[in-house]
Each structure stands twice: as structure tokens, then as C-alpha cells.
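Render this sequence as a predicted structure.
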Amino acid sequence: MNIENTKAQMRKGVLEFCILSVLKEKDAYTSEILDTLKNAKLLVVEGTIYPLLTRLKNDGLLSYRWEESTSGPPRKYYGLTEIGQTFLNELTTTWTELSDAVNLITNQK
């Protein structure tokens, strides 16, 4: 069994939740989202995040707008839709329940 593969699958499972959480406070463009994830030690490459952002947009959880940049081409800013906020609220509840259960099981002696 490959531990790196298992760790990657665990990270991948929470990536959608983390991206939606990053966008709950304010709209952000892809580089900002990636930087926030990397600062939290959740390593994600651009080739992973772009398809995920597109899928979340197509599912109605995110919207986007183009904004001019003073340091290059226009940037695509993503934000939560109303449906996305509701979805995030449900994921947050589920995450809390799951996290509590895992902590209870893994911390028992």
C-alpha cells in the first residue's frame, strides 16, 4: 500500500470544501485561492484546481466575473452563489460531525 496515494486521496476529498470555505469571506481569483490553500499546507497544483472550479461553477455553486488587473491580463474572480453558500453550510455541518467522530475513534485508548 502506498501511503502517499492514501494521503493524496484524503486531501482530494476535502479540497472542494476548502475551496468553498476560502470563498465564503470574499471573491478571489485562482492564484489567491491556490496561495491560501498552500499557506494552509494543502498542496494543490493548477492542473487540479481549474477543472474543479469549472465543475463547481457548472454545478451552480460558484459564479465568476472578469476584473482588469494593473499587473497583467484581466483576472477571473470566483465567488459563492446563494446555492453555494447553502451547500457550504451543509458541508460545514457534515465536516464537524465527521471530524468529531474521527477524533473520538482515533483518540480512544
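Summary. Strands lie at 28-29, 62-69, 72-80. The radius of gyration is 16 Å.
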